[in-house]
Write a structure and sequence with these properties.
Blueprint (H helix, E strand, L loop, with lengths): L4 E3 L4 H8 L6 E4 L5 H6 L7 E4 L9 E4 L2 E5 L4 H6 L1 H6 L1 H8 L4 H6 L2 H6 L48 H7 L3 E6 L2 E6 L22 E8 L5 E8 L10 E10 L2 E10 L6 E2 L1 H5 L8 H11 L11 H22 L1
Parallel strand pairs: 1-3, 2-3
Antiparallel strand pairs: 4-5, 5-8, 6-7, 6-8, 9-10, 10-11, 11-12
This protein binds flavin-adenine dinucleotide.
Flavin-adenine dinucleotide binds next to strand 2, helix 2, helix 6, helix 7 and strand 8.
């Protein structure tokens, strides 16, 4: 690893100042599970690292009538085990619990998980100068593509890695972001954009911006939710596909629905058309199949990842039917 200077700010404003706006010069450190790996492989070699852990107050979870607030430094273990998250936002708790291993969940943070860079093996290999590294091609298009995107790909085809992001998006999360131009609040979903729109490794944070907090509104009455993940390694692994489904029922019928996915597109994939097909209906097997088909509509697999289409369909169907079962209890 190249040596670097570690800065320990004591406030977000100081962190913004130290971070500056050039990521080749300074990067933020939260749990380090992603950043340190990239630095070891020399994919990123910032001469300055700005440590968020020296800022007090970023690791708190607050639950009140208006909803839930998760500080950027709340660990994934704390998200998974927090009683309010378990009771009111099951998909978020399940998604956090599905991440990596115990050690990774103990160190990995909400902010870091949402802002982690693609796991694409070409991006992570210093010898491949891919589009994300200002090269001229996406190697997955002609190379090994079994872990890549089946939806929304092109010109890059990496798959979004965070399990937490789709679960939070399915609960209509917003984020508080601080940066050189002050503070702003935005839907979490808007933090991500397709490579076709902007080659930004999937993130829209402006240079120098820091994610400070994630806020979740109080769930609607009659809401049931789940996160269903399929991974290759049974021990710990990223999602080949992960489905967050949040559905509110009234008298057995769906009145509100959100479906978002990990591992299938360069961003957390929000299946808006599929959600609409659920509204006003009773959830049964034929409807779950129809909705699952809509989620993978317009899929465009690469040479090695066609299996993800059937896999995603199955996970969506299972997630939805499990929610119907829950609301009947
Ligand atoms: C072996 C392994 C398996 C994993 N498996 C999974 C998995 O199954 N599912 C999953 O979702 N994740 C998985 N991860 C990722 C892990 O969960 C971490 O959450 C993630 O790597 C980053 O979290 P961190 O707090 O360690 O962030 P860091 O590594 O410190 O930071 C990650 C990136 O985000 C930036 N950043 C950090 N905090 C902020 C902030 N507040 N605002 C703006 N930018 C910020 C950093 O500069 C850096 O670029 C895995 C990681 C490893 C190493």
């Amino acid at each position: 690893m190249k040596s670097f200077l570690m800065e320990n700010p004591t406030s977000l404003d100081e962190a913004v100042e130290l971070l500056g706006t050039d990521p080749s010069q300074a990067q933020l450190l939260a749990g380090g599970m992603d950043l340190v790996g990239r630095m070891k492989k020399r994919v990123d070699t910032p001469p300055r690292v700005v440590n968020l852990n020296s800022i007090p107050g970023l690791a708190s979870v607050q639950d009140n009538a208006g909803g839930l607030s998760l500080g950027a430094l709340v660990t994934l273990t704390d998200v998974a085990e927090n009683p309010a998250v378990l009771a009111k936002y099951s998909a978020v708790s399940e998604a956090a619990r599905s991440v990596g291993s115990t050690q990774i969940r103990n160190a990995g943070t909400v902010g870091g998980n949402l802002c982690q860079r693609p796991r694409c093996w070409y991006f992570r290999h210093r010898q491949y100068v891919c589009l994300q590294k200002h090269g001229s091609e996406c190697f997955s298009e002609v190379g090994e593509s079994r872990y890549h995107a089946i939806l929304g790909g092109g010109p890059c085809y990496f798959a979004h890695p965070s399990d937490l992001a789709p679960a939070l998006i399915a609960y209509d999360a917003t984020v508080r972001v601080v940066g050189p131009k002050g503070e702003r609040t935005a839907p979490l979903e808007s933090l991500y954009c397709l490579p076709a729109e902007k080659l930004t490794q999937g993130l829209t944070l402006a240079p120098g911006e820091i994610l400070a907090e994630v806020r979740l509104p109080a769930p609607r009455p009659g809401t049931r939710s789940t996160y269903v993940k399929f991974k290759e390694k049974p021990s710990f692994d990223f999602s080949l596909a992960g489905v967050a489904a949040v559905v509110s029922f009234e008298n057995g019928k769906v009145v509100h629905a959100r479906i978002a996915l990990s591992g299938v597109a360069p961003i957390p994939w929000h299946a808006t058309k599929a959600e609409k097909a659920l509204i006003g209906a009773k959830l049964d097997e034929p409807l779950a199949r129809q909705v699952a088909d809509l989620v993978v509509e317009n899929n465009a697999p690469l040479a090695d990842n066609g299996y993800k289409v059937a896999l995603t369909r199955t996970l969506v169907r299972r997630a939805l039917l499990s929610l119907d079962e829950l609301q009947r209890k």
